[in-house]
Amino acid sequence: MPIIIYNIYNVLINIWFFLESIYCLDYGRRLYDFKFPSNTDRSPMAEHCCFMIYLYMLSKFVDMTDTIFFILRKKYHQASFLHVYHHSFVPMLMWMAVKLMPNAGPAGLFPLLNSFIHALMYGYYTIAALGPRYQRLRVWKKYITIIQLVQFVCYIVHATLFLFLQNGYPIFIVYIAYVQNPFFLVMFYQFFRATYQDKNKKCN
Description:
The chain has 204 residues and is mostly helical.
């Protein structure tokens, strides 16, 4: 029961973050505003979006409890390098965003896509935790992973535009955005291949 409650919490909070991301990005228009934003902007919109990115950062630290659940349930194989690295790096990345550019439009692509995928993912986890009668829905796990791969392709395209068009951002932030996404794409693809493609070959 605790794991189901935790999963439902993640579904709801990520739907909320997804909708808030759409609002704070002005329905996508701010994604391509590559000029570094003013830190003196105290408009209600800026204050609201800065507060939301702060809450989103806190939620990424809460996500680290996934690892604790894996260990308590003795599912050590799920606490993989990919899982631990992803859930360790993302909170640090969001902390930097909060400290350096809490109202930066281009940075909003990450919470927009990530919260959407996490809502799907934890929805799947919730259904899967209800018992064996829902095991036929396990096939959807593969498609969630494919959506995750598409997510990183979107990040890479956006980061490439950001690299050449940005104006005034700290240079190390620019390179972190550009380098990390291909790294995650490769790791997630390796996971996808090992989990689905290699298993299908063995079955055949």
